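Lab notebook page, bench 4
Experiment: in silico fold of construct C2
Operator: M.H.
Input chain length: 372 residues
Purpose: comparison with the prior construct
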Amino acid sequence: MTNKFVDLFEQYNWEDIKEKIYGTTDIDVRTSLLRKKKTVHDFLVLISPAAQPYLEEMAVQSQRITQQRFGKNIQLYAPLYLSNECHNICTYCGFSMDNKIRRRTLSQGEIRLEAQALKAMGYQHILLVSGEANNTVHTDYFIDAIKQIEDLCAHISIEFQPLETADYKRLHESKVNTVLVYQETYHQEVYRAYHPKGKKSNFKYRLDTPDRIGQAGIHKIGLGVLLGLEDWRVDSFFTALHISYLQQRYWKTKYSVSFPRLRPAEGVITPNFIMQDRDLLQLICAYRLWNPDLEISLSTREHAYFRDHVIPLGITSMSAGSKTNPGGYVVEPESLEQFEISDERPVSEVVHKIKAMGYQPVWKDWQAEYIG
């Protein structure tokens, strides 16, 4: 086994993987669909253009597998944005350092007000999010933020700048259950063009981050890429390869995947690659067929019609009523969003829809004391 994912990653070539995906044949797809235990190679086959005619069959299988493994349950979570300060220039993000916007970092008291508002909506799972600004939204700031909300929720996830293993261990001791880190794109040759300045421009440091999270013993790691930067099929193959590696190395850890499609935001680029709804459905089903235990999350970036229709087809968790600006729930609703959401329905309406489809909205499925 390799010492870290970057060692495995360097054995692969972007163009070679692209050629394999687009060279997939009909018989390759039929063979992969029949294989009971699927490999990362099968995932590659199932995300190929050749698999598109089999989407209905994939959806049926995905629904069956998901219900067998997770039941008819949808976990609900909400993001709580703490800060839009950032030291990176990222061409796709409204928080990018070169955007001339008013910066805002919540005080500890304001964080509690936002969390109380989410608690009133029913939320027990809160995702703390911020830009990457180590002088203000550092590890100590997050630990203090966790102290403000730990009595209000059962599950705390975080999404902010990559850290060292020792920092992740501190966060783990502070009751952080899940850490999300997105590579954005695995296309190393163009990565720097999207991240021209800041610590995030270090491709390999970011690539190593899930290894550091795994070494810290965090309960769950969430991965994903920003769909729209580069070819979604190739990027998704490398995401699956990364998850496969992590599951083998840090086998006590749980894993989730998300599908952030590039959304409009202040001063950002337009997508280089358009991903249609049908493509995203194919990707969701391919993940489920390949990895029955993988948790699959869908955010309010996606429009309501699509979200409603994919609930039975592989999704295990969803956000609802999300605000992507610091203080967006009660403290300062008009501060700048990181990106525009698409599903703007209130939480109550999303919950009603989930129930109407015969599914159970789950506010809490975690208790730290039960985990050894």
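Observations: DSSP finds 15 helices and nine strands in the chain. The longest strand covers residues 73-83.
Next step: discuss at group meeting.
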